[in-house]
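Lab notebook, design round three. We kept the backbone fixed and only want residue identities now. Task for the bench partner: fill in a sequence for the structure below.
Input structure tokens:
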């Protein structure tokens, strides 16, 4: 008991020193806490406010991201997955410190699901074990993401471009971010003021008014309908999914096809400027910044290329294993490479590239399966039925 109390005192002392630390010291201190760092600001709104007022918006967002994201169990690439998650969360919070402050005060956490682990195996989601997502789809056991509450979940494979061994789990397209979608749900439910929610509801209503008048309407997930006139695309099913998919499109992380219509999803800030109302565009700018950095999400193709390259290298080594160098008894003096700090660079196509590292550094740019499945509306007259906001968001098959 005395040792535990001593640990609490040391943790409180570290937390109290966070505002005065340099960015590098703060990042290293938070990195050293690992799994113990979550919820350390719960019940300390004065300290959260002090951090917000002391730090730049960008650094405050990075600090919040380090406090919010945590791994659960052993994933294939734990450091890569966690740092990718921290980078995406920091981007989403970097332009609106008040939202970051609200989420920290509410104890929001992003939990990374190991590739071989079911969502419902995690203690935060155990109550969903065996529960059906919809009559047409599977249970929450196969879902690879959830959002809308203070607990956000995302499969680690979606952050690294890997695969999951969970039976009947969905596959997500290269370039589609589950985390941005799910974290947008939580921002919607826990971070936005009522006036912003009214803007979203009005925009959603206006789109369905146009659909009911027979107009061809573009949504984040493409045209309203595909071959079936009774199954609208996923972003048109309710206002929550509209906002989440709109967020993905704004960040260029909405690649792939809609699972309900088969149409290619809209993706990129240009879609929002062309097909959404000025009020919606202004809202996204207030939440996420004027110039959102496109995100490299779920890099499936690149991961496969990397894996194939290393497989070829291993095959080459195996094939030449019996060729012993003449100086085989010499001892190598080459030191093992050390893990370098996180670096953020921009590739030729303008996408943010986040490297694996020991801790977050300042971003070098201007701040800025939940397997989504929902019951389909049987009456096409607005509005389609939304979901009970007290439950996690339902997932969509990709």
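Proposed sequence:
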């Amino acid at each position: 008991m005395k040792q535990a109390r001593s640990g609490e005192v040391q943790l409180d002392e570290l937390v109290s020193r966070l505002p005065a630390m340099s960015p590098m010291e703060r990042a290293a201190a938070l990195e050293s806490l690992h799994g113990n760092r979550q919820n350390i600001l719960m019940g300390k709104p004065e300290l959260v406010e002090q951090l917000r007022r002391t730090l730049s918006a960008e650094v405050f967002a990075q600090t919040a991201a380090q406090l919010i994201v945590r791994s659960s169990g052993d994933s294939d690439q734990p450091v890569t997955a966690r740092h990718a998650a921290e980078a995406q969360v920091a981007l989403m919070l970097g332009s609106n410190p008040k939202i970051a402050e609200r989420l920290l005060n509410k104890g929001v956490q992003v939990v990374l699901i190991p590739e071989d682990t079911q969502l419902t195996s995690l203690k935060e989601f155990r109550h969903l074990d065996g529960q059906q997502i919809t009559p047409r789809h599977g249970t929450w056991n196969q879902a690879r993401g959830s959002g809308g509450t203070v607990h956000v979940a995302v499969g680690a494979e979606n952050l690294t471009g890997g695969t999951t061994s969970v039976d009947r789990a969905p596959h997500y397209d290269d370039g589609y971010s589950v985390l941005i979608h799910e974290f947008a749900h939580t921002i919607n439910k826990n971070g936005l003021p009522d006036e912003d929610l009214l803007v979203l509801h009005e925009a959603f209503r206006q789109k369905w008014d146009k659909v009911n008048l027979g107009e061809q309407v573009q949504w984040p997930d493409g045209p309203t309908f595909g071959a079936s006139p009774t199954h609208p695309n996923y972003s048109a099913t309710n206002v929550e999914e509209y906002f989440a998919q709109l967020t993905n499109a704004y960040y260029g992380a909405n690649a792939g096809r809609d699972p309900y219509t088969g149409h290619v999803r809209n993706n990129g800030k240009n879609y929002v400027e062309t097909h959404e109302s000025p009020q919606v565009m202004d809202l996204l700018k207030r939440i996420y910044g004027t110039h959102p950095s496109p995100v490299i999400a779920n890099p499936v193709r690149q991961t496969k290329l990397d894996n194939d390259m290393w497989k070829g290298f291993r095959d080459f080594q195996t094939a030449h294993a019996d060729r012993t160098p003449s100086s085989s008894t010499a001892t190598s003096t080459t030191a093992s490479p050390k893990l370098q700090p996180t670096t953020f660079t921009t590739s030729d196509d303008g996408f943010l590239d986040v490297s694996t590292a020991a801790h977050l550094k300042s971003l070098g740019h201007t701040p800025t399966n939940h397997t989504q499945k929902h019951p389909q509306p049987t009456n096409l007259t607005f509005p389609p039925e939304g979901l009970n906001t007290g439950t996690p968001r339902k997932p969509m098959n990709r």
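Keep this in mind before ordering anything: The mean pLDDT is 80.
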